[in-house]
Design a protein that fits this description.
single chain, 109 residues, mainly alpha, 6 helices, 77% helix, globular
């Protein structure tokens, strides 16, 4: 893994940790009722997707277990189709997908 990929992964980890701070103490219902937290999480998912796009093709090829296309797709919906963004899917991403992604990245950096 090259130095740039390592730096990008470290930035993605920081973004995931920021989402963890945003949703600490929240459950699905309280998340859905809090517009500020929903928007903060959506923006941070956009940041993660932006960073995932700049990882090298070599890195992505070696780490096919990390769903880069899905990460970028979430970014695209959050950035370009906000009115279509389903926050129940965002919550699922935050509670199910991000812990797995965090674990995989922590094993690499």
């Amino acid at each position: 893994m090259n130095k740039k990929d390592t730096q990008v992964l470290e930035k993605i980890l920081k973004e995931i940790e920021q989402i963890e701070v945003f949703v600490k103490g929240f459950n699905f219902e309280s998340f859905m009722d809090n517009e500020m937290v929903k928007r903060s999480v959506a923006m941070t998912l956009i940041n993660i997707g932006e960073k995932a796009k700049i990882l090298s093709d070599e890195f992505k090829g070696v780490h096919r277990d990390i769903p880069f296309k899905a990460i970028v797709a979430m970014r695209n919906v959050a950035a370009h189709g906000y009115e279509e963004l389903r926050f129940d899917y965002v919550w699922e991403t935050v509670t199910k997908d991000l812990p797995d992604l965090k674990s995989k990245i922590e094993g690499l950096v």
